[in-house]
Write a structure and sequence with these properties.
This protein is α+β, with helices and mostly antiparallel strands. The chain contains nine helices and 37 strands. It binds 2-acetamido-2-deoxy-beta-D-glucopyranose (7 copies). Keywords: Glycoprotein, GPI-anchor, Lipoprotein, Membrane, Signal.
């Protein structure tokens, strides 16, 4: 209840804020501060009762286009003007021309509305730069198709008529959303002839600037963003009710969505049928952080159309992300960077490839329409991080409409390795946390315990560092926990389970689960006779031939060090240890268990390949979830095998 209320409250807050922005600064878009559609009337010549004008509609919006079925331009005459003739467009209504006897005007309406001609219009109806079916491309994508012109011959004026401008321009593109300013006199349009040596100009130029407001066009948002990453299995879906709430009837697959700008004029089309989702957005942009390489990272971008009755041609998607300051390769979309003023992040614009995916098709009963690409970005090592959602987008627009972003507290987070390893086992064996700790006061070590079958099981997790709050990895913590646990619990057998790096040269693959035969250190170099052997600290694991036979695990030697990376000296020691796998705790556990004469076995699952070509820390995070599942399965099998047996039967 509380969460619904706070969500509603947020919605209300945002609406108030943005409406206020609209009334103060004409719906200023910080990513496209100069965007507008400018309508220009160039008077080419005066006639006995009026003038001939060329009307140009220029779309200066970087990433907002005028889509099918195209623009409709209207205005109101201030005198008794009629349009004698027209080329490159036509007036939708002729109006009452009964006052004219010899020559019949094209339109006598007081408030005519003009429509563009189709590209296949007859030559006698055409004018220069005309006939684009009302479609204006976005300025940043295709400036050559971002404008359209037509010519009108205006007449039926008397006296000193040269200053009678049309008034109250209206622009539907194709639905509502645009508000046009007053028609003002400006410097006459100039163009050059004779190879730039002579300039010619029109008699007079009138201009009106039309700006877009999403809140006039749509009552509700129309687009939302969902997120996922390789390092966390959680998918962050679009915020619930981003674009409206679905009806109570959850069983339906299709919903009616109100207030979406509609292309047709019939009343039914004011309702759009979309797939029923929890977000109810007709459009969804999904950002998946897919891979992390040494110098690059890769994103998969998918745009889904949940409409049952609307295709989007020449769609575009804008993404604000600091990562675009580095070079990026986009595989299946066209793209460009937009200039940004007063922004530290870069802004990239994506659109479909012609004849391939520039049409985002409607959904059908089986699936939504979608287009997708992968983007390979170079890393700026100073900025790049997997933490704090840095790899996730800051802002996304579809066709210039803001897409609702999930809140940062729902972003997929970097997992916490030790907890990811321990918790599934805790659940599996139905253990409970020990609140009257058997350990000294103040230590972060956590003990889960319980009875599983005939076994008394304790899982000890070293917990979080009390100073820095990160997992207490490494040998110091491992040896202390092992010592304290043996003292407190007197176990018959210790299983050191965890993840490890593997060497592919020795036959390790990601997801392999190893039973270690020998355990040694690789970062305790003491080059003095006998001390060198003490440093290596080689110990044998408790021998369990029957577990090996029964469970079909791999066997290898384990080498332990306190660093996640591997220096050349470490590498030499690891080679000398003949190790197949490498971890950060094993040899410390082996030292203590050997000291206190408690049998110990070591079950280690490979999350990353040390001698591969990917950076270890990144690969580790990428594979953690899947490999943990393999580890848990192996540990469960070992525990099931132990049940009802004595040590000598292992
Ligand atoms: C309309 O856009 C153009 C191009 O960005 C810009 O030069 C012009 O100043 C804008 N007009 C208004 C009134 O903002
Ligand atoms: C233009 O609109 C304004 C405000 O609606 C109105 O007062 C004015 O009469 C209109 N002008 C013409 C020529 O219709
Ligand atoms: C058409 O305009 C004339 C005057 O120009 C007027 O007498 C006539 O009633 C109008 N017809 C209609 C149908 O409005
Ligand atoms: C095209 O021009 C012809 C005559 O030149 C005219 O009859 C026709 O109405 C025009 N069509 C349009 C769509 O303007
Ligand atoms: C016609 O109108 C313009 C501006 O409205 C004015 O400057 C000019 O003097 C007028 N000409 C005559 C002959 O009235
Ligand atoms: C969308 O495109 C598909 C395939 O071209 C077509 O079958 C469908 O009728 C189109 N839908 C609309 C609303 O135009
Ligand atoms: C990418 O966009 C540019 C500019 O609109 C265009 O010239 C080019 O042909 C497009 N490339 C493809 C493959 O569609």
């Amino acid at each position: 209840m509380e969460s619904i209320l706070s969500r509603l409250w947020r919605f209300a807050l945002r609406l108030i804020f943005l409406l206020a922005m609209c009334s103060f600064s004409d719906c200023y878009d910080p990513l496209d501060p100069n965007g507008n559609i400018t309508v220009t009337f160039d008077i080419l010549q005066w006639t006995v009762d009026g003038y001939v004008a060329r009307v140009t509609i220029q779309n200066f919006y970087q990433y907002r286009h005028v889509d099918k079925p195209g623009w409709q331009l209207g205005w109101t005459w201030t005198r008794n003007e009629v349009i004698w003739s027209m080329s490159g467009a036509f007036a939708t209504q002729q109006g009452n021309c009964s006052a004219f006897k010899s020559q019949i005007p094209h339109s006598c309406k007081k408030d005519p509305v003009m429509l563009d001609l189709m590209p296949e219009a007859l030559p006698q109806n055409r004018s220069e730069d005309c006939c684009r079916g009302g479609i204006l491309a976005a300025w940043a994508i295709n400036p050559f198709n971002s404008f359209s012109s037509f010519e009108i011959t205006v007449g039926n004026l008397e006296g000193n008529y040269s200053a009678y401008k049309p008034a109250n321009l209206t622009l539907m593109a194709p639905g509502p959303g645009y508000t046009c300013g007053p028609v003002v006199d400006t410097d006459p349009t100039v163009w050059s002839v004779i190879g730039g040596k002579r300039e010619e100009q029109v008699f007079r130029t009138w201009k009106s600037t039309c700006t877009y407001s999403s809140y006039i066009a749509n009552k509700n948002p129309v687009c939302c963003v969902s997120l996922s990453t390789f390092y966390n299995p959680t998918i962050t879906s679009c915020p619930q009710c981003s674009c409206g709430c679905r009806t109570a009837d959850q069983s339906r697959t299709s919903c009616i969505r109100q207030d979406y700008p509609s292309s047709q004029t019939d009343s039914l089309s004011n309702f759009d049928r979309v797939q029923c989702t929890d977000h109810m957005c007709p459009l969804q942009v999904h950002w998946h952080v897919k891979n992390n390489y040494m110098d690059h990272w890769r994103v998969k971008l998918t745009i889904s159309n949940h409409n049952y009755g609307k295709n989007y041609s020449d769609w575009n998607v804008l993404v604000q992300h600091p990562g675009f300051s580095q070079s990026a390769t986009t595989y299946s979309f066209n793209s460009t960077l937009l200039p940004t003023v007063g922004f530290t992040d870069e802004v990239a614009l994506f659109w479909g490839l012609e004849y391939y995916n520039n049409e985002l098709l409607q959904a059908d009963e089986k699936q939504q329409g979608s287009v997708t690409t992968e983007i390979l970005l170079s890393k700026d090592s100073k900025a790049f991080t997997l933490r704090n959602g840095w790899t996730l987008p800051r802002r996304i627009y579809f066709n210039g409409e803001n897409c609702e972003m999930p809140l940062p507290d729902t972003f997929p987070m970097l997992p916490n390795a030790m907890q990811t390893e321990a918790l599934p086992l805790v659940n599996k064996f139905q253990l409970s946390e020990d609140h009257n700790s058997v350990f000294p006061k103040g230590v972060p070590w956590v003990r889960y315990h319980g009875i599983y079958k005939d076994l008394n099981i304790n899982i000890i997790w070293p917990g979080k560092d009390t100073v820095l709050g990160v997992d207490s990895v490494g040998t110091v913590s491992a040896s202390l926990v092992t010592y304290a646990s043996i003292q407190a619990l007197q176990p018959d057998l210790i299983i050191n389970a965890g993840t490890a790096g593997g060497f592919k040269a020795k036959g390790a693959c990601i997801g392999d689960v190893f039973l270690a035969s020998d355990i040694a250190f690789h970062d305790r170099r003491i080059p003095i006779p006998v001390f060198d052997l003490y440093g290596v600290g080689l110990r044998q694991a408790f021998s369990t031939p029957n577990i090996l036979k029964e469970l079909n695990l791999k066997v290898g030697k384990l080498s332990t060090g306190d660093s996640l990376d591997m220096s050349p000296q470490d590498e030499a020691s690891i080679t000398a240890n003949d190790a197949t796998i490498k971890d950060m705790e094993g040899a410390a556990v082996a030292y203590v268990t050997n000291l206190l004469k408690v049998p110990a076995i070591f079950v280690k699952a490979v999350t990353d390949i040390v001698d591969g070509d990917k950076p270890t820390s990144e690969e580790f995070l990428q594979n953690l979830a899947a490999v943990t599942a393999a580890l848990d399965q192996a540990v469960t099998q070992v525990v099931d095998f132990l049940n009802g047996k004595s040590l000598s039967e292992l």
